Structure formats: structure tokens, C-alpha cells
Amino acid sequence: GRDEGGFDPTDCGAGEPRGLRRASRIRAFRAPAGLPIARETFVPSVRVMTADVIIIGGGVIGAAISYYLSLEKVRVLVLEKGAVGQKASQGAVGFLTIDSIPFAHDGLLRAALAGRRSYPALAAELEGRTGQGMNLEHCGSLRVARTEADLSCLEREVRWHKDHVSSDIETLSVAELRRRWPDVEGVIAGGYFYSHDLQITSS
Length: 203
Prior knowledge:
Layout: H1 18-23, E1 27-29, E2 39-43, E3 46-50, E4 53-56, H2 60-71, E5 76-80, H3 88-91, E6 95-96, H4 100-103, H5 106-130, E7 141-145, H6 148-164, E8 169-172, H7 174-180, E9 190-194, E10 198-199
Parallel strand pairs: 4-5
Antiparallel strand pairs: 1-5, 2-3, 6-10, 7-9, 8-9
């Protein structure tokens, strides 16, 4: 019979309870083969999923937390209402760089440096487990100043970067910048090239 909320577990419609059909719009991210995932059990006509940890959001943060928890034998269920990795994670274009504003705190800076150092090994590990590559590139990043004021701001950022992250930064004159990156258009005052920055696919 129906419960007090009006749900009838025998009213399966197209083969599933109404509650399950509504819930099916939420997609579950699955851990790579061989890693523990949420266990599915079945009670008459109603699917029940159990997990040690439920993560809301299937972006790069949610997926990373899920992956590392799975390595510790934790059963994880990631709930994502859209496509995995297609919201803010996709908009970040995949650059792995460290700037002063978000990472000025020593604890965050240490975590950022350790995280970036881990990417080459992580990329190889994930491709070996899943067959999916993250297209990790050691391509560097270009910072362009349009005005002298912009250049002054960049200079302060570069000083912080050399003190805390890496001294491997090239100072670029306007002529050198245009010679190496002819597609840069408009008025420019100079720039810097961070040769140690990485990029991964964001799609």
C-alpha cells in the first residue's frame, strides 16, 4: 500500500519507482576499475545505495577527493546533476599555475606546490588505471601587460613568485614578445613567461 507520503512502491510505471525515476537525473561518478565504489543492494522494487562518503559535485575537486578516498578503500558516491567536469572545472582551462592572491597563506602555498609537483606521477597513474589521459603539457604560461600600470602590477607578482615559487621566469620586451608570440595583438607594454607552468585538458 501507499505510505503516508503517498509513495507506492508497487507503482513502477516504466519499470522503476517514481522516486527512483526522479533520482535518476542525478548521475553517479564511478571510481576506476579495481577501486571500491558504493555498493548497490536491492529491496523489492526500490534500489538502495550505500556508501561511506557521499560527495556533492563531480568537478575536479569532487573527482579528486573521490579518487584518493577510493585508494584508502573508502566506498564513495559522487552525485553530479549535470555532466562530470563540465562546470567551473571546464572554465578553468586547465592551467596549473600559482599566483600570490589565492596562495599568499603559507599553508595554501605549500599545498599548491605539493599538488603541482604530484601531477606528472598522477597523470601517468590515472592513464594506467583508466586508459584516460589528462594531456598534461609542460607548456609554460605567458603574462602580458597592456599598459605601464599593468606592467608594474606584474612586476610585483613576479617578485613574489621568484621568492616563493620559482625564479624560472623570463622578462620579455615588447619586441621579444611579438617575435615569439606574433598572434598577440593590440598595444602592449611587455610581459613575462612562466616556463614552469603546466596545463591539462579541462574537458
